[in-house]
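For the sake of transparency, this paper describes our internal protein records without simplification. An entry from our holdings is shown next, in its original layout:
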Amino acid sequence: MPSFDTRNPNYVYIDSSEALREVLPELKQAEVIAVDTEATGLDPYTCTLLLVQIGVPNKAFIFDARRVDLTLLKPVLEDSAKLKLLQNAKFDYNLIRVKTGISMNNMFDSMIAERLLTNGISREVSLLSIANKYLGVNLEKAVRQTFVNPKIDFSQAQLEYSALDVLVMFPIFKSQFALLQKENLTRIANLEFQLIPVVGEMEIHGSLVDRIKWESNIRELEQKRVQIAAKIQDFLRPLYLISQMDLFGAAVDVININSQPQVLDAFARLGVDIPSTGVAVLQRTDHEFAKMLLEYREYEKLISAFGFNFLEKINPKTGRIHPDYMQVGADSGRFACSNPNLQQIPKESAFRSCFTAPPGRKLITADYSQAELRILAEVSGDPVFVRAYKEDADVHTLTASQMFKVPEEKVSKELRFQAKSINFGLMYGRGGASLAAQIGVSADEGKRLLDTYFNTYKKVKKWLDKAAKEAVENGYATTLGGRKRWFVMPDKGDPNYDRLIGSIERQGKNTPIQGTSADMTKYALVYISQALKKEGLDAYPIQTVHDEIIVEAAEEAAPRVKEIMEEEMTRAHETLIKTVPAKIDAVISDLWEH
């Protein structure tokens, strides 16, 4: 473990532009620098930038952002030949970009590096944890909370804290980079690091939301919720000896729809015995009450997630929504999104249409058609699957035809639905019982359908079994992009051993597919951003949802932007997928469509 002394860090505090100019030559000569910032808050549009720290080995330069012209740092921070070391780089990128217009590049993010190195087994990626792990030091982070008053002078404790945050980056980088090389993670790390400014720009630009339309949607949902709730009460009323009226002459409720014991009692009165009122149980319960309850809960969920409080996320300075994207939010490598979570907005939803382009601009939405199934075809090499995609056939219809021995033109909607459920369910390790619950058949029928499927696609079965076995044997699974997901192996004496191993096997099947899809979308975001910049187009990505990318562009540039998105998403696909062709669905619109 490298030694590091946190006492008396070497730093220079700079509070004038003249002093800044004097140290520029030293900063320009450095091949590697560390960068950090201190601010009064997290929102780059509303907080005050207090300090910008730039470190070289064994020395930190602390620039008082209130008193110096930070744009003088542009040739240093925008030097693409200079490696910049940061912790949670996206935050500092956004803050510096919004406050100064400087766009950093060529960044190494210790937080992302640690996420890649411990993916699946740890989420300890704070600088406090990382410094303790690699250097054996305990950084004093309580000082961070003192950066609240932009009008007072900085204390020695604040300046030393700020200096240490950049000085520790050099030995941390050395240790992490060696491990990335050892684990063959440099390729995926480079992708994630190239993605940092792209994600930063997505957050900075944000999305425009039609507030009036959003409020109208909520009111409509609330009305539907009231109607279905009343319908449920009327449906159950004959089962109860309740006929009272409230003060306004309306019949009182016979049960609390949100109470599981009362709902279970209602089912019992209807002669339906169910173990719980969970969604999965209700979905496989063939009863009118279950259907109404599911509809009620769907309205509840939408109102809870996208109610009037969602509009509070609109930034007061920009009038737009600026979510927080976590690049490696899931262990599969997929993004996570929060504050607010735009990824949970249903695809077929009136809420999507509330995301609009400003006057004179367009939204171009593009996504990969059946990305994960195409990846399954690639990794399994199944000839039927591969041929279907090469011939642009309807894979679900073809699957139904193969499974049920009927001509493709005679495949019914029901048979296609069953085939589609199996196709997608396989990637999540779904078994016969789970499949049966989804498509509404018995467990025995679900198992029979799965057996028929695997007899049809023998190489798919072989690959899934191999992926599950290797996940347990190796202790990790990999994507085609080189991402690794480690698993915590249970002790053989653990009473839950079989269940835990089963979970690892399912993740071993899913990770190479879903994770490769995540890698592919990330390559696409990088390629699209590079191409738009190269052509000087007034366009930029503003959102991504799994295998979907949304770009906002000037109206006159939209047709070319659509072409670029199709070209670069195809190139990203071909970076990882060598046999199965890509299919991109793209549309130009005034709103978020698809």
Summary: Residues 231 and 292 are 8 Å apart (CA to CA). The chain has four domains: 11-183, 211-310, 323-370+518-589, 372-509.
